[in-house]
Backbone:
């Protein structure tokens, strides 16, 4: 697809956001009508429920920040925001089942206070970043790894600027920003004195709009066995700009922790540490970017590197309508939402019992 078509696509995404913004003034006032099982226009009611979840901050309005807080009413909007469909990064992170402070669906269902309605939510970047390790070249005292990077949406290439980071043990490598027509190659060279495994992280933003961003990571062996999947050794739960690290094995030794955005990188300082957990403060970065959180360490025999994102997306939460046999009226609504000034795609499914 020509670049002009890509630019048109992303312009349309922004238009969706603007149209939804124009609707927000009335949508925020809809809750009394939503809890009405006798509503004859079921599609209209379900649409209003989906917008209510995204436009309401819930009660208390800062419920996402407190890891022990179960909201009285459910809503994901950022409190006191002047921009509709701006979601709170902590409320969204607490929908991710990988976060130790996540709400479960029973809690969300109860606090929505609509017993005849089931719902599901997916939040993800507007486009995808694919990373493929294509070759390894062993040299004298160092090894070079070749990667192919693709940025695309539904199989269509997305022109983007790319920022690369590599973490291995206490090593952090930063690579220049590359402009890509949707495909790029990268060579990563590591000294053989660096302990692995290593993690390549890619943050991408479109050339047409800096608020359209995506990211991904790829772990690879370097002076190590094949890396374990993320989550094997640690649970990483960012919340209220604090990284909460829980050990899946006792007595792990953490070497380094980083927070990485498109424009900034920061080494994190341990605030609390014991033999089961640790915490780190996450800086408030000034750029509009997701933060990639990385922790490297080892147990008695194995080195590891784990990562997550803050806000903790992509995620899927709520009911699984794909396997449901008890619902007939299921409607799907897709929105452009913002988290820390970055635009994401949010899909809400709302369904009710068979009549």
Residues:
């Amino acid at each position: 697809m020509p670049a002009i078509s890509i630019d048109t696509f992303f312009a349309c995404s922004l238009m969706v956001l603007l149209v939804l913004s124009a609707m927000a003034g009335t949508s925020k006032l809809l809750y009394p009508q939503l809890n009405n099982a006798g509503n004859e226009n079921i599609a209209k009611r379900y649409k209003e429920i989906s917008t209510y979840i995204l436009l309401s901050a819930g009660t208390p309005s800062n419920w996402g920040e407190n890891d022990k807080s179960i909201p009285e009413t459910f809503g994901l909007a950022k409190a006191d925001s002047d921009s509709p469909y701006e979601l709170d990064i902590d409320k969204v992170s607490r929908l991710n089942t990988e976060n130790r402070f996540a709400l479960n669906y029973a809690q969300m269902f109860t606090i929505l206070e609509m017993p005849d309605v089931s719902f599901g939510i997916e939040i993800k970047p507007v486009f995808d970043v694919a990373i493929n390790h294509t070759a390894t070249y062993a040299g004298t005292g160092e090894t070079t790894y070749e990667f192919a990077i693709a940025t695309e949406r539904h199989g269509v290439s997305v022109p983007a600027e790319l920022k690369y980071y590599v973490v291995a043990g206490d090593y952090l490598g930063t690579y220049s920003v590359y402009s890509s027509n949707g495909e790029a190659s990268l060579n990563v060279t590591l000294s053989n004195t660096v302990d692995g495994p290593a993690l390549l992280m890619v943050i991408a933003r479109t050339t047409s709009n800096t608020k359209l961003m995506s990211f991904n990571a790829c772990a690879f062996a370097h002076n190590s066995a094949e890396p374990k999947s993320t989550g094997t050794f640690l649970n990483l739960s960012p919340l209220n700009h604090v990284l909460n690290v829980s050990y899946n094995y006792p007595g792990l030794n953490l070497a380094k922790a980083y927070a990485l955005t498109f424009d900034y990188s920061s080494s994190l300082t341990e605030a609390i540490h014991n033999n089961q957990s640790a915490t780190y403060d996450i800086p408030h970065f000034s750029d509009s970017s997701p933060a990639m959180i990385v922790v490297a360490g080892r147990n008695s025999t194995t080195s590891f590197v784990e990562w997550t994102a803050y806000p903790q997306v992509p995620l899927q939460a709520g009911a699984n309508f794909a396997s449901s046999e008890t619902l007939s009226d299921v409607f799907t609504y897709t929105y452009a939402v913002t988290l820390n000034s970055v635009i994401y795609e949010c899909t809400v499914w709302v369904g009710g019992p068979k009549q």
